[in-house]
User: Fold this.
Amino acid sequence: MGVLEGFWIRNFKSLKQVGLGTCFPKFVYIDDDTQVLPYPLDSVTLFIGNAGTGKSSAIDAFSFVSDCYRHGVDFACLKRGGFDAIYSQGGKGSLSFGFHYRQNDELEAVTYALSIVCTKNKTPFIESELLAYQRGKESLPIFFLQNGTRSIRYLVPDEHIGNTELTKIEFTDFRNLGLASLESHPRFPVLASLRNLFENWVLSDFTPDPARGLDLSLPRRHESLRGLNLSGLVGYVLNRYGSESEALFQRIATLIPNVETILIDSTQTDKPRLAFKMLGLKQPVPITLLSSGTIRFFAYAILLEENDPAPVIILEEPENGLDQFHRWKLLEQIHQISDHAQNPQLLMTTHHSDIADSLYPSQVWFFEKNQEGFTVVERASDALILQEMMESNQPIEPQWFTKQFLGTSKNALF
Assistant:
């Protein structure tokens, strides 16, 4: 499984120009005074800040690019009210996104950059699209789309590939991404992983009520926004893993208080439903009768514990609706992801200091608004007070975030 080492966003809502993790200025169009962060994102990355500082906009940027990949830029913009509705007020240049992705324990990596502009009649189209392949410290552009007179997408030849392998594809549609139609190249195996990233990352702002009517007849991989596909996710697990799914559900059952086992109940309805055998009760309890917090925790657990998880899982404020015990169990799962490279990568937003306190300062990113109303982002470990502590080899206290950052200024986070 690979890792998303960094991403940058430009002119998307309040995110006029932000970058997190590793970015490559050689292949992206950013201002000279922009700080390009040289360190990669961790296996767990937390966005924290006041309401309205741009955390959800950063999450929606992932959803926007996914919509562009699946359905085209026209659909992605219209879904959010049109190009003007999402373009930063007073912004200059294109609406741009970039992602730097690397296979675990490999030197090869790719940087993908997408720029979108709008015609005078408000029709969005792709201005440019670039894919740069990195071998060690050397970066090579292998795929480039530029809206111009020649209108071609191509793999660029270099001394490693040779001119005989140059591939040109004529095109006329500037609404769909070239990445979505680009075939895997034997010299660049990481391309398949990059496409898997765009196709299979998971975004969840889960609400329990839509998940109560658990119909397992339509299996689908991974959960959709707001839990509408929790039943499909469970059906997918049952279909793909068969008898092995029992071990997965039993593993999840051990994380939920008063639950002995999780099983499929077909006694009350023609369609199978998930049921929970509760401690002390003879009959299994259907999911419709579980508390909202239990359903919410179950949804997160199945995403994080699935045998073949999504490459990146994005959770918005997962602490909402969880009691202290479930929140502690969720933190245990988060720490397991942080400790093992083969686990999925996790991005989260939160308004709860317990989550920030439980992570390393290098995993926590502050979102704030500047005087112009645009988002600025800083990694917690770059704060001067923490830098001084680390340089002097002082231990980071268990409640480092609460003690160092809450209530210290008029711009306190909560």
